Amino acid sequence: xxxxxxxxxxxxxxxxxxxxxxxxxxxxxxxxxxxxxxxxxxxxxxxxxxxxxxxxxxxxxxxxxxxxxxxxxxxxxxxxxxxxxxxxxxxxxxxxxxxxxxxxxxxxxxxxxxxxxxxxxxxxxxxxxxxxxxxxxxxxxxxxxxxxxxxxxxxxxxxxxxxxxxxxxxxxxxxxxxxxxxxxxxxxxxxxxxxxxxxxxxxxx
Length: 205
Known about the structure:
Blueprint: H1 2-27, H2 31-34, H3 41-46, H4 70-93, H5 97-109, H6 114-121, H7 125-137, E1 141-145, E2 153-157, H8 159-180, H9 185-198
Antiparallel strand pairs: 1-2
Helix pairs in contact: 4-8, 5-8
């Protein structure tokens, strides 16, 4: 008998609790009734949550401090110029950028000493030695004793090296013309002057 009484009491408590929850739900307005027409419910639900990453393309990203850093912009421009070099000179002639630069210096000036090349190309002596060894192994240059100073050497283009230098110099023209499509001639000249000044060197022809 006692068990029946307890079961009936439990049933009444359950029914009372269910009616209370239903009444409470009816008394609370739906979320949609609280949201103005111009503010979607999803937006309201997101408010108060931590900021989510904005869906922006690379060109829309804010650069922050990078926008004022010369080094960042030089690095970005280098991606374009290095790609153009590889297309016009690197792959067709099997030349690295520094190798091309060295050949151009020898083509423009004739025999040069290693110290002159190292200073102009901003290379250490060991690095220049490896570079010269590599180009000499390809038959592009040779080392000759300096006639005016037997203690030093001159670096001289071979016939093969001169031909490669002349051909690659000619191939550099369309490469530069591609880049000139992004700049006016005046901007091109000004950019070269500014970069030379930044590097602490005077631009020469």
